[in-house]
Specification:
heterotrimer; A alpha+beta (about 375); B mainly alpha (about 325); C alpha+beta (about 300); A: about 375 residues; alpha+beta; Cytochrome-c3 Hydrogenase, chain B; 15 helices; about 10% strand; B: about 325 residues; mainly alpha; 12 helices
Chain lengths: ~375, ~325, ~300
């Protein structure tokens, strides 16, 4: 099925001074370990060959060797920037397989965690993206540090909630592992209020800034057809004019209780993706507020606390759960054989699918656009390579 | 007994050279602290506690102790000479700057011409480094450098000529002495032309010095470190030194051309201090811009130069000349 | 979207429900017809690029030279205003770490340690090896010393260099023997120093402040109300046949009905757990494979899809 939109763009440049340049795996804007073999014609990229796999850690095999109790603590290592997302996908899949109920309070806590995680992840995206297009020795670094400052505040919340800043292990099958500590509610509200105010500053720094606009508008345009053919998701596909958000489409974990908007931009360029994410920031903040307001009393888990390694068993079967992560659709497929471990586990990483867009949109750009586009795709290589 | 002129010049050059190096070292510290505060950080703190007063010296020592790696496939002569070829013009521009009346290495009667000509020479070292490293990043960076220097030296020269036209002299001390009096600095004069010229000068300076938002040849997110990606240790330190010396030199020139140099209230011996403060003010302006903006792309940089800055600077120069002619040589 | 991963509880609506994104502070951003063509080149932007689209300073169309220059000046002012505000009005957020430490929250998950009983002064650990079994990276090794009144840990080693601080060992500990500390300073010049034995772990426990979590507390926090807990053990049927907890014995009766699933051809006729619980609480976007023979194929499609 090789339609017109899906074709890898080929450049018919007549020049003969092609230069093959490696961008990565060790490169400041490789966002981890990504190797893009660029063929250049002067400053213009005429072809790109993307090499992934440098961060492969046999995560799916690990999932087969660890039980349903153990794996949620490690699931967060696939996408370490938005660790709550993959944990949630995993436990949702197990819960579906085992038909475990999740108490309402736990569902709301999951929503709060997921949305705070989205804020944190978008903070890091904004920072690193500006670092890419702006330079580590310039304004990009300034925005990066501002964004990291805000992300740290969110991580403080997670630390107060779970005790960890990066890999939380917050979810467990049947609910969550941690309840809200005293005073956390107030702390969350203060933090999100502050972040909402600071978002205005970022927009003042970026949105009116002609330097920023010329770097992003019209760069890396993804047409809606291409977006659907390649199968990108998350802010990318919403930036291309397709309203696809699992929180709206297939609500999980009580997302149908909340009132929020799904931002859609039609331009499909880096700037559209930026706008989508900036609106998502604010929508996440409103969702967190609603969830905090409506947080029901009750247990946080329908199952007793973990006491032994084989505590959770699910019947034979196959389950797939997908959640809307910060980067797009994160799916987890589990084939269970009735034992405490899955027979086979498979991740659908949002970054992995999103990264596949690169060969379609990079040719024809300048070198400087390559990093801008890479940053706007916002891949996390833990999730790409797993 | 007086020393022969050559010895006098040598002593003056020695003093100025060392002063420049010291100033450059502490200007880097200033920039780091300034940027840190702008980014909600503290910056260097512990080396030379408190506030890192010894940090530049520690950095220099560290770079001296670093292993000097030469890439196997590098063009050794070109590669090794490049830092020197880059540093010499950057330091040489200080030769013609008078820090106070009569205090300087050589107050040439074509001082500004010398300055502009020499400061454009840094491209040779830059290109040598980019070419000699035998590295693709460095090569692309060198090509960008040539593009950019050609594009931005023209507006840089044109804007720097505005005060020359207003003062009627190319000698830097003459330009300063033409700015005496209340609101006599060129930035306040010629019906707003001076401010515009200063702004255009700042933009052109930032671009000619390859600072963000015009630092496409360093561009560490694209080209890692650009032309100096293969340099390490003391050679890297020389390049860094040259870069900051150049920035400092153009800051001094900007203060001299537009902000009245050493003119200021107080006794005459305060002159150099006023000059230094003004230069640091210009430097901080450049730094402020640097840490506020994102980098733009190579084609856009060239577009800004050729479509906006160059016409603007030519118009400014013509307007200044017209103003002088219209007033019949009187002060404008 | 192919439907194999579907099984959505409600069929997804076609993506027509496109709302214009809410602009910020009243600025509404309308959706536009499509990606901009390469012809809208204005201002300082340079010519068309193939594939990369075009460059325009302003998306809202040409403003002319002066408009763009004004816009540029305004942008410079606002941007530098933000940095200036941070320069003068905000204090640095840096914590001068070795000199100053921030307040670590109660639940901080730091270095692991073993505890003594507060009253008797005995070691709490009974060497039951539950932590060893549950540890995902398998860094704990315990050997039990059997005794009359209670058991002891003969050896207890913890390879802290591989630990991932997931707190599962704390959670399963029946005697609250293993806890986490509010310290995280692991830096060492010798990796072997992070191979902690029993004495070292006990010493660490005396040396540093414990964080809030102990096994009992964590399990209490997670415990559902009593009724639900009993239900979880025995009465799986109300919750869809298979809510089965640890003791494998309990799993059997409930399991046999439900353990029909993918993989074994013999059982393939058994229908999968029937209707999904329709409450809002269940995860909708999930699906159990109803027809086992199809299962392997489905897995394959997913792989290729990615």
């Amino acid at each position: 099925m090789d339609t017109e939109a899906r074709k890898v763009v080929e450049m018919g440049w007549g020049g003969n001074e092609r230069l093959v340049m490696n961008m990565g795996p060790q490169h400041p804007s490789a966002h981890g370990v990504f190797r893009a073999i660029l063929t250049l014609e002067g400053e213009t990229v005429v072809a790109v060959d993307a090499v992934i796999g440098y961060l492969h850690r046999c995560h799916e095999k690990l999932g087969e060797t660890l039980t349903y109790v153990q794996y949620p603590t490690i699931a967060s290592k696939t996408d370490y920037v938005a660790a709550m997302t993959s944990e949630l996908a995993y436990v949702l899949a197990v819960e579906h397989l085992g038909k475990f109920e999740v108490p309402k309070r736990a569902q709301y806590l999951r929503v709060i965690a997921a949305e705070l995680q989205r804020i944190a992840s978008h903070c890091l995206w904004l920072g690193t993206w500006c670092l890419d297009i702006g330079g580590a020795l310039g304004g990009g670094a300034t925005i990066f540090l501002y964004a990291i400052r805000e992300r740290e505040d969110v991580l403080d919340l997670f630390e107060a909630l779970t005790g960890a800043r990066l890999l939380y292990g917050f979810h467990q099958v049947g609910g969550t592992r941690y309840d809200v500590p005293a005073g956390w509610d107030k702390q969350v509200r203060e933090t999100i209020d502050r972040i909402e105010r600071r978002l205005d500053e970022y927009e003042a720094m970026l949105e009116d800034n002609a330097f920023f606009l010329v770097r992003t508008q019209g760069v890396g345009v993804i047409s809606p057809e291409l977006a659907q053919e390649v199968g990108i998701s998350g802010p990318l596909i919403r930036g291309s004019g397709i309203d696809f958000d699992l929180r709206r489409w297939a609500p999980y974990s009580s997302y149908e209780d909340f009132d929020f908007r799904v931002p859609v931009e039609t331009a499909g360029d880096c700037y559209a993706r930026y706008r989508v994410r900036m609106v998502e920031f604010r929508e996440s903040i409103t969702i967190v507020r609603q969830a905090l307001d409506g947080l029901p009393e009750g247990p946080i888990s329908s199952r007793p606390g973990v006491k032994s390694v084989g505590q959770v068993r699910v019947p034979k079967g196959e389950g797939y759960a997908r959640v809307e992560g910060a980067r797009g659709e994160v799916g987890c497929c589990i084939v269970a054989d009735g034992s405490p471990k899955p027979y086979r586990m498979k991740w659908r990483g949002a970054s992995f699918s999103n990264l596949a867009i690169l060969p379609h949109i990079l040719p024809g750009c300048k070198i400087a656009d390559v990093v801008a586009i890479m940053g706007s795709i916002d891949p996390v290589f833990g999730e790409v390579d797993r | 007994m007086t020393l022969p002129p050559l010895a006098q010049a040598a002593i003056a050059a020695f003093i100025v050279l060392n002063a420049v190096i010291l100033m450059v070292a502490y200007v880097t510290l200033l920039e780091r602290k300034f940027a840190a505060r702008m980014q909600s950080r503290i910056g260097p703190y512990y080396v030379g506690w408190p506030h890192g007063w010894l940090q530049p010296i520690a950095d220099a020592l560290k770079l001296m102790l670093k292993e000097d790696v030469v890439p196997a496939a590098a063009d050794r002569w070109v590669y090794n000479l490049a830092p020197i070829a880059f540093l010499v013009p950057c330091v040489l521009i200080f030769a013609t700057i008078p820090f106070a009346p009569g205090l300087g290495v050589a107050d040439l009667n074509i001082g500004i011409l010398f300055f502009l000509a020499v400061s454009a020479l840094e491209i040779v070292g830059l290109f040598m480094g980019g070419w000699g490293s035998n590295n693709k990043y460095a090569l692309i960076s060198a090509m960008r450098a040539v593009n950019q220097i050609i594009s931005y030296d023209l507006p840089f020269i044109f804007t720097a000529l505005v005060p020359v036209v207003l003062a009627g002299s190319m000698q830097l001390s003459e330009i300063v002495s033409a700015q005496t009096g209340l609101f006599g600095w060129f930035v306040f004069r010629a019906w707003g032309l001076g401010v515009l010229a200063l702004l255009a000068y700042l933009v052109a300076t930032i671009a000619a010095e390859n600072r963000v938002p015009f630092d496409i040849l360093e561009a560490e997110s694209e080209l890692v470190a650009g032309f100096r990606v293969e340099y390490s240790g003391m050679k890297f330190a020389l390049i860094q030194l040259g870069e900051y010396a150049h920035i400092l030199g153009t800051s001094f020139l900007g203060a001299l051309l537009f902000l009245g140099g050493w003119l200021g209230p107080g006794p005459a011996w305060l002159g150099p201090i006023w000059f230094l403060l003004k230069a640091i003010f210009v430097f901080l302006l450049i730094t402020w811009v640097r840490w506020s903006f994102v980098r733009i792309r190579v084609d856009q940089i060239l577009a800004i130069s050729w479509k906006l800055l160059l016409p603007l600077s030519i118009v400014l120069l013509m307007a200044a000349a017209f103003a002088v002619a219209w007033s019949g040589g009187a002060r404008v | 979207m192919s439907d194999f991963m579907g099984g959505l509880s409600k069929p997804p609506e076609p993506p027509t429900r496109s709302e214009p994104s809410r602009g910020v502070r009243g600025r509404t951003r309308e959706t536009r017809d499509g990606p901009r063509g390469p012809e809208s080149v204005t201002g300082f932007g340079t010519g068309t690029q193939r594939g990369g689209g075009s460059v325009a300073v302003l998306r809202d169309g040409a403003k002319g030279f002066w408009g763009e220059t004004l816009q540029l000046a305004r942008a410079v002012g606002r941007t530098m205003g933000v940095t200036f505000k941070n320069l003068v009005a905000r204090k640095p957020v840096t914590v001068m770490y070795p000199d100053v430490r921030r307040q670590y929250p109660d639940r901080f998950r730091g270095v692991l340690a073993l505890t003594y009983d507060k009253e008797t002064g005995e070691e709490n650990c009974i060497g039951c090896r539950l932590c060893e079994y549950i540890c995902p990276p398998q860094v704990i090794k315990v050997e039990m010393l059997k005794a009359k009144e209670r058991n002891w840990a003969k050896h207890f080693t913890l390879e802290l260099y591989s630990c991932e601080f997931c707190e599962l060992c704390v959670q399963v500990c029946p005697t609250d023997a293993i806890v986490m500390l509010k310290t995280f300073e692991l830096a060492t010049s010798d990796r072997r120093e992070l191979l902690l034995d029993k004495d070292r772990l006990h010493a660490l426990g005396l040396e540093h402040e414990h964080s809030w979590a102990t096994g009992t507390r964590l399990r209490d926090m997670q415990a559902p109300p009593k009724a639900a807990r009993g239900e979880g053990h025995r009465d799986g049927a109300t919750r869809g046949e298979a809510a089965v907890t640890a003791p494998a014995a309990a799993a059997k009766p409930a399991g046999t009905a439900a353990l029909a699933g993918a993989g074994s051809a013999e059982e393939s006729a058994t229908p999968a757990p029937a209707a999904k619980a329709d409450g809002p609480s269940t995860a909708e976007a999930v699906k159990t494979a109803a027809a086992p023979p199809a299962a392997p194929g489905e897995v394959k499609t997913k792989e290729t899809a990615e």
